[in-house]
Every structure is written in structure tokens, then in C-alpha cells.
Write a structure and sequence with these properties.
The protein is α+β, with helices and mostly antiparallel strands and 300 residues long. 25% of the residues lie in helices and 29% in strands.
């Protein structure tokens, strides 16, 4: 029998109030479930504004333990609505050790486990190395009530190695909670190219690995501490939305716009993973005997 499920991505604008953001997300989960969703995914760090625009020790107060209050609320929501959840959180693991972490919660409300973001960026207004310790759980998959999920986070989405290793571990769907956008001053010149590159690399992961890809991103202009919270000319980050779901041939099944909150849904047939890999046997034809240099930074 076909294994058809409905995926929902929560694309949202975020306020300065973590409690309000959680309440809004819980309401979106309930609404998505009413619309028939069986897998619901949040954007990256959904409980707060994107605080990594500046290095500020006060922002560590936003972190919490896992399990903790937010995962308790999410587990209750999954149990009430009967959905599988993927949610992105700021994890306080121990004093001085913090992670950018995604949790997977099964439809019965059980916390199945976590994935800690492996690739940590350090770019203008994306000062994540100040906050996050690189992940140490490896590239993981989670067997859920709706299929086997692989979870990666934002900057991970640019690395084909991460997608491939997660697919090789059995993932049928790659989920990428994301917070990415434009520097407003650069948007006119570079914006269309940046957005196209972001979509193309992830659709390529779907094709190369024969998997579905689901990418929830946030929307809205966020200025972390007003106009004085960044470098000269600071205008914040305009998060570009465009949350999307792609099938194993890279075709976009559903996509949101650039500026408005949305619940993006698509029905997917997980049997397409097997069918696609039969016709495009990229995994079969890998030359694993010739890839040793992938473990080197550069081949001199």
C-alpha cells in the first residue's frame, strides 16, 4: 500500500516574547493537524528572534535544557494532535556548553531524540560560533509513526556530505529547520541569486539521495537591538521565507512566499523513495573505494 503522509511547515514571524512565540507555534501545530498534517516542522530557533546577529552574553538566558519546559509543551501538543513534530531549540547542555538543537517527537508524544547542528557559521550578522558548540551526535535518523526522518539545521543544508550521510542512515525525508535571509543593503544586487542558490542546493540533495526535502524558514525583518545593534549601516536581516517541500526528483510540491506567515502543506508518497532510487541508482553506483580524500580538508 502507498505510504502517503501530509507534511506541514510552520513559516512564522517572531516576536521578542519567547512565551508568545511558543503559544503561537502550539496553535499552528493544532491548526496544521486539523488540516490533516501528520508531520509538522518548525523553523530554526522558533522561540526567539534570531539573536545571533550580535555577540551578547545576555542571550544565553534564552537557552533551556532538553528535556525541558518547551519539549514538555511540544510533547503534549504532539500527543493531543497525533502528529510527529520536528522543532528547533537553543539547548543548554551544561554550564558553558550550548547547542543549536532540533528535537524529534513521535505522534504519541514521546521525545525520540535530538540532532545537534554540526556546521556552525560565522558570517556578518550570523555569529553562531559565539553561541553554539558544534554537534557531537553525528548525522542521525529517527524512526517515527510517519516514516524515517533525517534532521539537519540551516547551515548544514549547504553541505552535500551531511545530506548523503543522513540518507545513507535510512532517511526518507530530510528536514531542515532554517533561519536565513537577506542583508537589506545587498538584496537588490545579490538577493535573487542567493535565494536561487539556497533552493537549488537543497533540491539537489533530494535528487542526489532520492529523498524528500522539507525546509521551514522564518519571515520578517528582525533587528536584534535596534539600529545600534550591529555594524555601521546595520539594517537587520530580512528573512526570506520561501519554505518549501520537494520530492525525490527535486520537484517543488509546495512553497510559501517571501514575506507572510504560512502553513505550507503537501501530501507525499514515501514509496517514491524506492521508486526513484530504482530509476536513478546513484547510491548503487557510488565509488566508495575512491572517496578516501573526502576526509581531507583539501587534496594537495
Amino acid at each position: 500500500m502507498p505510504r502517503k503522509i501530509k507534511i506541514a511547515l510552520l513559516q512564522a514571524k517572531v516576536t521578542a516574547d519567547p512565551a508568545a512565540n511558543l503559544a503561537s507555534t502550539l496553535a499552528q501545530i493544532e491548526q496544521a493537524a486539523k488540516e490533516g498534517a501528520q508531520l509538522v516542522c518548525t523553523q530554526e530557533l522558533f522561540r526567539s528572534r534570531y539573536f545571533c546577529q550580535r555577540e551578547d552574553h545576555a542571550n544565553f538566558a534564552l537557552a533551556e535544557s532538553i528535556p525541558g519546559p518547551t519539549t514538555d509543551a511540544l510533547c503534549a501538543a504532539a500527543r493531543k494532535s497525533g502528529v510527529v513534530l520536528v522543532a528547533s531549540l537553543f539547548e543548554r547542555r551544561a554550564a558553558g556548553i550550548y547547542h543549536n538543537t532540533a528535537v524529534v517527537i513521535d505522534a504519541g508524544g514521546t521525545l525520540l531524540g535530538s540532532y545537534r547542528k554540526m556546521h556552525i557559521p560565522d558570517d556578518p550578522l550570523y555569529h553562531e560560533k559565539f553561541y553554539f558548540t558544534p554537534g557531537d551526535l553525528g548525522f542521525r535518523t529517527f524512526k517515527t509513526a510517519v516514516g524515517t526522518l533525517g534532521v539537519l539545521v540551516c547551515w548544514d543544508q549547504w553541505f552535500p556530505e551531511a545530506a548523503r550521510l543522513t540518507a545513507l542512515a535510512g532517511a526518507e525525508i530530510l528536514v531542515y529547520p532554517t533561519a536565513i535571509g537577506w542583508h537589506p543593503a545587498e538584496k537588490a544586487e545579490w538577493g535573487a541569486r542567493q535565494l536561487d542558490s539556497w533552493q537549488t542546493i537543497q533540491r539537489s540533495h533530494a535528487v542526489a539521495n532520492g529523498v524528500f526535502v522539507a525546509v521551514p524558514n522564518r519571515v520578517g525583518l528582525e533587528k536584534d537591538q535596534g539600529t545600534d545593534g550591529g555594524p555601521e549601516g546595520y539594517q537587520g536581516i530580512e528573512f526570506w521565507g520561501h519554505s518549501f517541500i520537494a520530492d525525490p526528483s527535486g520537484q517543488v510540491l509546495a512553497k510559501a512566499g517571501a514575506s507572510n506567515p504560512a502553513i505550507v502543506t503537501a501530501e507525499v508518497d514515501l514509496d517514491l523513495v524506492e521508486q526513484t532510487r530504482q530509476h536513478w541508482p546513484f547510491l548503487r553506483d557510488r565509488r566508495v573505494d575512491a572517496y578516501q580524500d573526502l576526509t581531507r580538508r583539501l587534496r594537495d
